[in-house]
């Protein structure tokens, strides 16, 4: 912690000593409070997606109007799941197919565009999406579908450095926004459906030189690079074969595909891990650490400080990647340093972020079939007796195990789309979905670069009227304060503001704003294609702006079964929209 304070001081001195608009450590750490820019994914490293801006509020939002829209162009569009960044009047936003655009935030004029040259053999599981970039110094840094990190000059878009994080031919890709913590670019990897080994890695933000690597499957060793040499950095209780049978840990999945959050107070990064591979759980009896877990990682050397597994021995593809958001609350006169996450498995968890202890957990969806509840002390799920799809080896022909109906479906009670936490209402705003799946297991074997599931499935809605539900949830009690029901599944991020508003988008194309206390819809505007990205807000020339990307796609149309049929009329797109209130003379 001392070392950290010193580096923050040095960063502050650097700002004072130069007129340069470079993004400093202080800019990153203060991002939530500084309303004139958005320099991190999550609108602050803790990922609260809460802004102290309040010019746009429950009264004024009705006058919100678009000021410009920028097209990502190209023949290929597909899902746009990005969150824009804004610094000194320039917006940096990523698009599908690993593209990055710099745009004049006042006019919507393009400043430059960077297109990653992607090889033919990339294997993204869930559309060609990208979720955003990171800013540091004079660089804008993002990751590509062929599993590389690219750092571009913010002014020109020229490549300053490029690093291969993993081999795309083995099934690795990257779609998450990287983050910069203490001068290091931190990234995870995707590929859990191909039997890759998940990892978190740190690279020097200025040079791209690797600093440390932390695999997330128990048995694999982590390394710190020092003076050009690899040095073991230890593993938390990690022993090959302890929670995995035989050699299965060698292709164990646990992809860190959604990136992480960082809490400067505890100096910990929180990364989630995806499903253990393969999906057929009968092949891998045991807890399969560290799959379907949240990991607290030391940013200095990549050590796992604590872990909390939401779905031990996962058999439903309940990836545990969803964002863990740090927040404080008062209880019995004491401040609790907590963190919360809404898991794909349908449970909402509140943890002690200092040590990973379970504080409480509760369902946030209407129905859960695979577990009957959580152990009150440990948070470990209590499995339903008949909730796990059967072992194909026990079937008559050995080819298809007994199918079960599981709720939530593997696309989750909540998937990647980030929730928001309002410091005003002290509620979490959770974009969630109500859907079921038929799931069964099949035999499978690992083959490098091939899908490694050993399962079949069909997803279907559980209600005729709606799938998506935006929920306001009290993390202290589990109470749902209000809900908004949406016909199509919700797949976009949420933003909460001090103006008592909650913003999100839907696949039908609408940017929507709700009263944070009551859930009353106060505004909606159709952007022309589905919204599956995350809105931001910032202030410029004394005015408050809202921006959101539009472009329907992502995992639902590709994996959604009956649900995909229900939303197949929705049109693709690719644009970023910016809104503000009219000035007096513009009314
Ligand atoms: Ca800021
Ligand atoms: Ca998965």
Which keywords apply here?
587 residues; mainly beta; Methanol Dehydrogenase, Chain A; six-stranded antiparallel sheet; five-stranded mixed sheet; 4 helices; 40 strands; 5% helix; globular; disordered N terminus; binds calcium ion
Brief summary:
The protein is mainly beta and 587 residues long. It is 5% helix and 36% strand.
Question: Could you describe the 3D structure shown?
Answer:
- The protein has 4 helices and 40 strands.
- The protein is mainly beta and 587 residues long.
- It has a single domain, classed as 8 Propeller (Methanol Dehydrogenase, Chain A), CATH 2.140.10.
- The strands form 10 sheets. Strands 11-12-13-14-15-16 form a 6-stranded antiparallel β-sheet, with no helix packed on it. A 5-stranded mixed β-sheet has the order 1-34-35-36-37, with no helix packed on it.
- A hairpin with a 2-residue loop joins strand 11 and strand 12.
- The longest helix is centred in the first third of the chain and has 16 residues.
- The relative contact order is 0.13.
- The N terminus is likely disordered.
- The site of one calcium ion has 6 residues, from loops.
Secondary structure: elements and pairs:
Elements: H1 2-17, H2 25-29, E1 50-51, E2 65-71, E3 85-87, E4 90-95, E5 99-104, E6 110-115, E7 134-136, E8 139-143, E9 148-153, E10 159-164, E11 179-181, E12 184-187, E13 199-204, E14 210-215, E15 223-226, E16 229-232, E17 260-263, E18 268-272, E19 293-297, E20 304-309, E21 325-331, E22 334-342, E23 347-352, E24 358-363, E25 371-374, E26 381-383, E27 404-406, E28 420-421, E29 428-433, E30 435-441, E31 455-461, E32 468-473, E33 480-486, E34 495-497, E35 501-505, E36 510-515, E37 521-526, E38 536-540, E39 543-550, H3 555-559, H4 562-566, E40 575-580
Parallel strand pairs: 1-34
Antiparallel strand pairs: 2-40, 3-4, 4-5, 5-6, 7-8, 8-9, 9-10, 11-12, 12-13, 13-14, 14-15, 15-16, 17-18, 18-19, 19-20, 21-22, 22-23, 23-24, 25-26, 27-30, 28-29, 29-32, 30-31, 32-33, 34-35, 35-36, 36-37, 38-39, 39-40
The structure holds calcium ion (CA) (2 copies).
One calcium ion binds next to loops.
């Amino acid at each position: 912690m001392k070392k950290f304070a010193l580096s923050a001081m040095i960063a502050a001195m650097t700002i004072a000593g130069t007129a340069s608009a470079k993004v400093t450590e202080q800019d990153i750490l203060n991002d939530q409070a500084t309303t004139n820019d958005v320099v991190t994914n999550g609108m602050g490293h803790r990922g609260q997606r809460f802004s102290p801006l309040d010019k746009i509020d429950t009264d004024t939002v009705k006058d919100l109007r678009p000021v410009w829209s920028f097209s990502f162009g190209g023949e290929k569009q597909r899902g746009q799941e990005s969150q824009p960044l804004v610094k000194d009047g320039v917006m940096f936003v990523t698009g599908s197919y690993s593209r990055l655009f710099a745009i004049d935030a006042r006019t919507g004029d393009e400043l430059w565009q960077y297109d990653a040259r992607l090889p033919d053999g990339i294997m993204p599981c869930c559309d060609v999406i990208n979720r955003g970039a990171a800013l540091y110094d004079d660089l804008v840094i993002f990751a590509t579908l062929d599993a590389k990190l690219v750092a571009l000059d913010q002014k020109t878009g020229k490549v300053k450095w490029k690093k291969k994080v993993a081999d795309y031919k083995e099934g690795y890709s990257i779609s998450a926004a990287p983050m910069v913590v203490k001068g290091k670019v931190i990234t995870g990897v995707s590929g859990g459906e191909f039997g890759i080994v998940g990892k978190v890695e740190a690279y020097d933000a200025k040079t791209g030189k690797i600093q440390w690597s932390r695999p997330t499957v128990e048995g694999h060793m982590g390394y710190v690079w020092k003076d050009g040499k690899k040095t073991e950095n230890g593993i938390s209780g990690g022993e090959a074969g302890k929670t995995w049978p035989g050699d299965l840990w060698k292709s164990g999945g646990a992809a860190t595909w959604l990136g992480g959050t960082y809490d400067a107070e505890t100096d910990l990064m929180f990364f989630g891990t995806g499903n253990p591979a393969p999906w057929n759980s009968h092949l891998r009896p045991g807890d399969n650490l560290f799959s379907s877990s949240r990991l607290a990682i030391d940013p200095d050397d990549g050590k796992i400080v604590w872990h909390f597994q939401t779905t031990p021995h996962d058999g439903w593809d309940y990836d545990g990647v969803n964002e863990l958001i740090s927040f404080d609350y008062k209880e019995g006169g004491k401040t609790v340093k907590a963190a919360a996450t809404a898991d794909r498995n349908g449970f909402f968890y509140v943890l002690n972020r200092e040590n990973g202890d379970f504080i409480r957990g509760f369902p946030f969806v209407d129905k859960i079939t695979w577990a009957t509840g959580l152990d009150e002390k440990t948070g470990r799920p209590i499995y339903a007796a008949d909730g796990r799809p059967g072992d194909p080896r026990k079937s008559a022909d050995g080819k298809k195990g007994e199918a079960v109906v599981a709720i939530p479906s593997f696309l989750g009670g909540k998937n990647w789309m980030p929730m928001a936490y309002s410091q005003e209402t002290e509620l979490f705003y959770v974009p969630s979905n109500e859907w079921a799946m038929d799931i069964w297991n099949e035999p499978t074997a690992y083959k490098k670069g091939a899908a490694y599931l050993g399962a079949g499935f069909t997803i279907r809605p559980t209600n005729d009227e709606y799938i998506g539900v935006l929920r306001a949830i009290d993390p202290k009690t589990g109470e749902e304060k209000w809900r908004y029901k949406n016909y199509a599944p919700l797949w976009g991020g949420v933003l909460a503001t001090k103006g008592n508003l909650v913003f999100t988008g839907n696949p039908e194309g609408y940017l929507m704003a709700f009263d944070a206390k009551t859930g009353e819809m106060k505004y909606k505007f159709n952007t022309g294609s589905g919204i599956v990205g995350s809105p931001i807000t910032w202030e410029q020339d004394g005015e408050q702006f809202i921006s959101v990307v539009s472009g329907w796609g992502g995992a639902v149309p590709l994996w959604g079964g009956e649900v995909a049929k229900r939303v197949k009329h929705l049109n693709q797109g690719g644009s970023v929209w910016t809104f503000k209130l009219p000035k007096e003379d513009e009314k």
